[in-house]
Specification:
This protein is mainly α and 517 residues long. The protein has 19 helices and no strands. The longest helix has 60 residues, at 33-92. Among the domains are: 301-386, no CATH class; 389-517. The termini are far apart.
Length: 517
């Protein structure tokens, strides 16, 4: 106890109120309850201090402060992780020896009967228990998730760039740093930790999840003095980066979409002044953190958190994309998908519904159900429910110039055409697919070489498979680059005003709405 007893005791009492303990070590779980509460209180204090510091600079400095600190935190995380990988790989026997050591250690099989080649495998034909449903989920994961349309904090960062070109370059840099770079560091780290701390075959359920997650922390104990401090600092930087990103992004919704739009403009009938908006944003930060903290203390593992997030997001993903590509998608359709997703997710989670057949992943089946049912309801509501105000659609098209199916709306502008919108959608989909395939192929080529992964059962040579992936990834790069940057809309083609007849239509609609009220 490093705080005065009068200060520390309230945190001990608060830690005792949580449904889930704020400790992950399974050995500590056997300690007397008072010792567990003391340790949980220390963790609680640490979390609150980190969150308080992060909240302070994100609320006082705004987006620029968050971005500047995120850049520094990212490089700190990458350096710390790289050093961690080097030390763990060296202690496990050397980064080049890890694949052979895995084959020796698990020659008789690992947890669940997994074989060494399945541990090292990159492809579905080699990996263990990969069902068709799971492959479908992996293939559609970009679409059936909360960030499917690129909005949220990703859009916030992109729109803060000074030009459309810079925004696209930023997206490419983000993809490279966030996917291949981090992923290739995790491969030797995960295998090294597997060798140093092999899983206990007797553990099941939440105990096994907690043991797997705590292995990362156990690995930090293997680091020498100085390097351990660097790694802990990198982990704190990772937490701070995540916290400041989400509270800054979330507060923008509370401020602009709820307080400004509904409270001030719709309810009070006035425009809020900038000072009020700043204070509402700061208050929203505290509210978001309070809600997040309340949820966090009731989760049994990190895996539980991302499973719930994926399940909820799978019901909204398709609709989030449709609202950009299809003029008939309405706010009522989006609301239908949100409500049905919440209800269906509660049924699947709390009811512990098991719909998977033999050899199938129950979580994958649940995600597919979540993707189909809310999306179907949203489309039906959009088609048969109240339509969106045409004037609002015209204004949205003028400002965003979205690709896709906007025929009746694009006709309102002299320089726009439905054919051009559909062509831009095709180019965008082609660029996205080719870029994803390129990144995935390069990851597979380098990762397979790094861990000496076996080739898929239908390919005769491991070296040949890696070279094929490497050539495919590099060869597609100039293709998707050209497709992606042809998507830019020249400034002189974006018209500021719709045709006069649409202006008249907007005035007539406004007059009718005023008469109804």
């Amino acid at each position: 106890v490093w705080l005065p007893q009068a200060v520390h005791d309230p945190f001990v009492s608060l830690a005792g109120l949580f449904e889930k303990p704020l400790i992950s070590d399974l050995a500590i779980a056997s300690f007397p309850e008072d010792i567990q509460l003391e340790l949980a209180a220390n963790n609680l204090i640490s979390i609150l201090v980190i969150v308080a510091v992060t909240t302070f600079y994100s609320t006082t400095g705004g987006l620029r402060s968050v971005v500047n600190t995120d850049v520094a935190q990212f490089f700190l995380m990458i350096v710390g992780t790289a050093v961690f990988v080097w030390v763990i790989a060296d202690k496990a026997g050397g980064i080049t020896e890890i694949p052979d050591l895995v084959r020796q250690r698990f020659a008789d099989g690992g947890p669940g009967g997994i074989h060494p080649e399945q541990i090292l495998g990159f492809t579905p034909t080699v990996a263990k228990d990969v069902s068709i449903a799971l492959l479908v989920v992996f293939g559609l994961q970009w679409l059936i998730q909360l960030n499917s349309d690129g909005t949220g904090y990703l859009a916030q960062r992109s729109m803060a760039c000074k030009s459309d070109h810079d925004s696209k370059v930023a997206g490419i840099v983000f993809t490279i740093c966030n996917v291949p770079l981090r992923f290739l560091l995790w491969l030797p780290l995960g295998l090294g930790l597997l060798l140093l701390f092999p899983p206990d075959a007797a553990l099941v359920g939440d105990a096994l999840k907690g043991d797997r997650e705590f292995t990362y922390v156990l690995g930090i104990n293997e680091l020498p003095v100085g390097v351990k401090g660097l790694m802990l600092t990198a982990m704190l930087a990772a937490l701070a980066s995540t916290v400041d990103t989400h509270i800054n992004w979330g507060s923008s919704y509370w401020t602009n979409d709820i307080y400004k739009r509904f409270v001030c403009q719709a309810w009070l009938g006035r425009e809020p002044n900038p000072r009020n908006l700043v204070w509402v944003a700061r208050g929203a930060n505290i509210l978001i953190l309070s809600i997040a903290f309340a949820i966090m203390t009731r989760l049994s593992s990190i895996e539980t958190a991302w499973r719930i997030s994926l399940l909820l997001g799978s019901g909204l993903g398709v609709v989030l994309v449709l609202r950009w590509l299809w003029w008939k998608m309405t706010a009522w359709g989006e609301l239908a998908s949100i409500v049905s997703s919440l209800i269906l997710a509660l049924v699947l989670i709390l009811g512990d519904v098991e719909l998977a057949g033999p050899g199938m992943s129950s979580f994958a089946i649940n995600m597919l159900i979540m993707a189909v049912v809310p999306t179907t309801l949203a489309v039906l509501v959009a088609i048969h429910g109240p339509p969106e105000d045409r004037g609002g659609l015209v204004e949205f098209y003028r400002r965003a110039r979205p690709p896709g199916y906007w025929g009746p709306i694009s006709e309102s502008f002299p320089t726009a055409s439905a054919d051009d919108d559909r062509a831009r959608l095709r180019r965008g989909l082609a660029a996205t697919f080719l870029c994803s395939l390129s990144v995935f192929a390069l990851m597979t080529a380098v990762g397979s070489q790094l861990v000496d992964s076996p080739p898929p059962t239908w390919f005769p040579s491991a070296i040949g498979f890696r070279l094929t992936c490497l050539v495919l990834g590099l060869g597609l790069t100039p293709v998707w680059w050209r497709y992606g940057f042809k998507m830019s809309i020249p400034v002189n083609t974006i018209v500021d005003q719709p045709r006069p007849d649409v202006e008249r239509l907007r005035r007539e609609i406004a007059a009718e709405q005023a008469g109804d009220s």
